[in-house]
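subagent[fold] <- orchestrator: predict structure for attached chain, return tokens only, no commentary.
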Amino acid sequence: MAGAFGPRFYASGPDFSGMNNHITYLEKLYGEMAARLSPASAFQAYTHFQAWKYREAEASLRLEKLTPAKLSARAYVAAYRIGLKLKPSKRDLFHLMAGADTPQLKFELLVAAAFSLRGQAFLELCRETEPDAFPPVQYRDVLAGLIFHAMLRVEGRSSPSLFIYWQVSPALLAFAHKLYDAEQLTHQPAAFAEALALAASELQLPLAPFLEPARLLCSLQTFREMQTDVPAPEVYFKGFAFSPRGPVITVHANARYYHKYARRFLASCAACEPQARVHLHLVGFRARAAELKSLAEETGVQLNASSEAIPYRGPAEAWYSAASRFLHLPHWIERYGFVVVSDIDGEACFQPELLHAIKPGTTALHRPVYDGENYQAILWKNFHAGRSVFHHPPAEAIKSLAGYIAAGFRDGVPAGKRLWHIDQIGLALMTLAWPDMTVVPSPPIFHQKK
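subagent[fold] -> orchestrator:
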């Protein structure tokens, strides 16, 4: 349709013959985007997460020599949104900010700067910008979240005064005060989780993506009571017994990830352990048995495969593909007992002897190492979901984790919530809700390699 999200500008690719044409094209694209946005839009509407809608434009412009300093502010924002990697300097962004003539454009430039400048340069740019330049509180909430994240990464700490200085909404300020009460997490984890979840429930979009997962938090009591009756998927390709000795590597993939990554991942499993046992769960499609048999033989693994149809499309399909590893974890533990949950978009790097050393009744989780005094309170960043080991863990804890995932999709998708970190939040809540669980650091399992 001629007016819908820019096809009239990029359906057949732009025709360029000079820098001025590049700028004109990008400014038209910016206008098309701006006509569909408002300050109340979800944060992702302002960012490069929309880049998939502009692949042909990005492919055409990628071949051109675009200089950030020569672009207008609107052209630069459009270039950033379609995914062009222009590598601006701090000086470029200062120049562009000086040419921005509206609060919304200044806001959009700072959002772009958060994802395209080094953290320290981004903070310096923000310190030169007065919060009064952004009248809508939605802008200030987003920027405060981006600055908070950058300060943690660069300086190792932040401060509640940041949120006060940026005059954020009362809901975000209340949430920040709870987040900074991290000492309570050590001494009273249930009370901390309850208070943080309650404060997070009041947060309104848009938010920086670093803070948005907080809206998925729940109290530990609620988490413990969650159950699910999701049926076990059909295991339609059987290359090894349901009760093997030793661990089984489980990976979930939608069609795109299966075709792009499965062969390399399976071969890497065999490189770690010849005839490694892998369970491949296919989300939203079913590969032919003959194809799976050939794949197992060519990569050198023992392979079981299951599949399920799902009602989700778009981003929700990708969220479900990742989180369903824990929705179906009770089924995989019932079948195998000893389960390794891995991502698929990279290569396995496990050492069999280290996996075998994980004792029954033990859960091994990978906790990223962060500098910064507040990171332990950011529950959605506590664990990497795709590097987890479960060796006959407590059944109640695993069922509640699965129930939490099921409830998140049942209630969250219709409510428009982004569920990308729901599995990581689930793991954090599980360890807090069952403090007597035996949880140890996970050995190396997986290297992401897009």
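orchestrator: received. Logging for downstream: The domain at 234-448 is CATH 3.90.550.10 (Spore Coat Polysaccharide Biosynthesis Protein SpsA; Chain A). The chain has a mean pLDDT of 87.
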